[in-house]
Amino acid sequence: MALPPSLRTSVTPPELELVASEQLVEIIPLVSMERTAFISGAYGPLRPPTKCKMPLWMASNLKLKKKCHIVPPTWLNVEFLQDRLTQETTLPSFSEMPFRFAEIAKILLDVAPDDLQNPEKLRTLLKDIREARQAKSREGLSKLDPNELILQNLCAMEINEIRPFFVRGMAVLTQLTREPPPVEPMDET
Amino acid sequence: MSFDWDDDFNAPIAGPSFVDRARNAPEDDDFPIADDFGGGRAGILAQDVAEDTPFQQLIRHWLNERHAPDILPGQELLLGRLLDHIRKQSNDVELLRADPDSSEEEHFRIMLVQTEIERVKFVIRSYIRTRLHKIEKYARHIATTPEIHERLSKAELDHAKRYAKTVEYHFTQSVLQSLPPEQRKLDEDVAFMPPMIPAPDKLRPVFAHALVDCPPMRLPDGSATEMQKGQISLTPYHVVEHLLLRGEVALV
């Protein structure tokens, strides 16, 4: 019953999606519901058309049953992403994105494309941003050293993607540099 | 975060609903039940609460455990609280299901509550299985290292010791007893060979995400550095271990 081997090295994208689904989103309910107590807090009451906040998993559940519209987060629109893409392609650093943007964007594009304006364009933009950032993380590999590598503004999914290779690379570097310390003091004296 | 909704317990009961029946259930401090018809206030509160609920804490501990090479202190209290909560929610669901004249809306809420129970159960299971994997992998190291014992629950420690003993017994019975006595040892320290008792590799790099501004930490090359809130670093586990145990960083 121990953890299966396939899950031992890293968490999987579906697990990251589960974690991201705990984040709150705003919805416009189409049905009314009393306030209900859940393990993560009490949500509701739903009174159409008053907006209400609830976890993403609950919102997508309601959405799949056509019982609500999801209000997309402020960063999931063409202007914002276009702006980020420009930053991504012109500046050397990673631009600031919500930590779990990839997971949330995927869920919303899958579940509620009709609540987003121009979902096809959003898809393309997200893909372009992803590719621009991927190129940067690959470049970051050359900065790998056995002490520390600071990854400013990297997001959960991107970290998960580079994890196996970066962890292995750094472990090898650590092994290579582990031997010298006993020798160095002798050289200096 | 405290759930300060006790006042709402005395609100007039509108009719048979999930909330009302949950209200009549036995007292449970960490179970926020409120029937708030004020609208606006609820949204703001819910957002604040969602930041660090017991479930959010468990998710953090679960991800830490998944990424850390070493076994981390067990979260028995937190698990107990969540398990109690699951039991309570399941009981309420059972009660409501038994009721023949519940409305369609009621069924829908039952479905949502059950979905959440399954989500929480999944994380709890995965958390325990991750620990079980580490316990079995490092059973003999754990059995011989008293410092680790306090990080395990009683059941986990018993299992580790029993597992280590069983493995040793099996090795002896199947192979070692037919070898010459000098080759029978299971804890030899041979130069240039991996140790016979596997121990967690604290040199393994991890991705650490600073939750607060962290005090200085010492890197393997001897230099000191500080992590600012929100910073993400790839660094060997032993560098951030003490910060992780204090909850100042989370592994991602």
Question: Would you spell out the secondary-structure blueprint of this structure?
Answer:
The complex is a heterodimer of chains A (189) and B (252).
Chain A: H1 13-20, E1 24-29, E2 36-38, E3 41-43, E4 52-55, H2 56-64, E5 68-71, H3 78-90, H4 101-111, H5 119-140, E6 149-150, H6 156-178, H7 184-188
Antiparallel strand pairs in A: 1-4, 1-5, 2-3
Helix pairs in contact in A: 2-4, 3-5
Chain B: H1 18-24, H2 40-51, H3 54-67, H4 76-98, H5 104-137, H6 139-144, H7 146-149, H8 154-174, E1 205-210, E2 217-218, E3 224-225, E4 232-236, H9 237-245, E5 249-251
Helix pairs in contact in B: 3-4, 3-5, 4-5
GO biological process, one term (chain A): chromosome segregation
GO cellular component, one term (chain A): GINS complex
Family (chain A): Belongs to the GINS2/PSF2 family.
Which key phrases capture this entry?
heterodimer; A: 189 residues; mainly alpha; Ribosomal Protein L9, domain 1; three-stranded antiparallel sheet; 6 strands; B: 252 residues; Methane Monooxygenase Hydroxylase, Chain G, domain 1; two-stranded antiparallel sheet; 9 helices; 52% helix; flat; disordered N terminus
